[in-house]
Design a protein that fits this description.
287 residues; 6 strands; 12% strand; Endonuclease, Chain A; alpha/beta; 434 Repressor (Amino-terminal Domain); 12 helices
């Protein structure tokens, strides 16, 4: 399945969830009451409204009736969107090695118009070579070789989002100096990785800045995070925070604003893209 198709289903799910939330709030119905109507729970309604789970057309139909949307001309587009939002995306073929909490992120990443990330430990996944990814995945991992290769394949497939012909997203990464100095695999793997990073920076939709050690702690104590923005005005920005056993997705304005402010401070204090290019070119010779 093409990237565009995967993006379409993700956007439809997000937009449908957003519309259902607005309809529920306009009808002054609680999430608990809505969950009861579809024989489910308040948390299920929350996940539906955030576009993080698939939709049953029957559930959407029942919710529309509860919210007072009875005109078939209003119902039909939403029911059609519910059906289309369940289209399988390419990453579903990797369900055996892709955690469900990360599959949600892959869908958001594929749908985003702007991806801003701050990395502390590793080169961002969208900019990794296969050898670097293999070294990261295999590090301290007891997975079978076949599983490691499938995880490498997932990351390589994700990278197509930056190069597909139809409006690729803008990718803006700020990398802590530790992320580019930390050895992953052999010196040759690191040299190729940094060379690849420089090549990716030549793309018009890719911006990379280096945050040198001399900048001190500053905003870096926030840890790694990613902010995703979507072209559709109905969709809120989403902050993605990963931890050892899962991830958090923040989309409330107050939460997102905190991370936007941190990202702005980090970006201002980091080296410009031109100076970053010079620094990385010098660093290649140190491995």
């Amino acid at each position: 399945m093409s990237e565009a198709q995967g993006t379409s289903s993700t956007v439809r799910r997000l937009m449908l969830g957003s519309q259902l939330r607005r309809l529920r709030e306009a009808a002054h119905i609680t999430r608990e009451a809505a969950g009861y109507e579809i024989r489910s729970s308040e948390s299920k309604i929350s996940r539906l409204e955030l576009g993080r789970v698939g939709f049953k057309v029957r559930d959407v139909a029942d919710l529309l009736t509860l919210y007072g949307v009875t005109d078939e001309r209003e119902r039909e587009p939403l029911l059609s969107m519910a059906d289309a939002a369940n289209a399988a995306s390419w990453w579903h073929g990797y369900h055996d090695v892709l955690p469900s909490w990360f599959a949600n992120y892959v869908g958001l990443e594929a749908a985003a118009d702007l991806i801003r990330t701050y990395e502390v430990q590793f080169i961002p996944g969208l900019l990794q070579t296969s050898d670097y990814t293999r070294a990261v995945v295999a590090r301290g991992n007891t997975a079978l070789d076949a599983d490691v290769e499938r995880r490498v394949a997932i990351r390589q497939e994700r990278q197509h989002v930056l190069s597909h012909d139809e409006n690729p997203p803008r990718f803006w990464a700020v990398l802590d100096e530790a992320a580019v100095r930390r050895p992953m695999g052999s010196p040759e793997i690191m040299r190729r990785q940094l060379s690849h990073l420089l090549e990716m920076m030549e793309r018009p939709n890719v911006t990379v800045q280096l945050l040198p050690f001399e900048c001190g702690a500053q905003a870096a104590d926030a840890g790694a995070f990613t902010i995703l923005r979507f072209a559709e005005q109905d969709l809120p920005d989403v902050v993605y925070l990963e931890h050892l056993s899962g991830a958090l997705y923040l989309d409330k304005n107050d939460d997102v604003d905190v991370y936007l402010q941190v990202m702005e401070r980090i970006s201002v204090n980091a080296l410009t893209p031109a100076l970053t290019t010079e620094a990385l070119a010098k660093l290649i010779n140190e491995f």
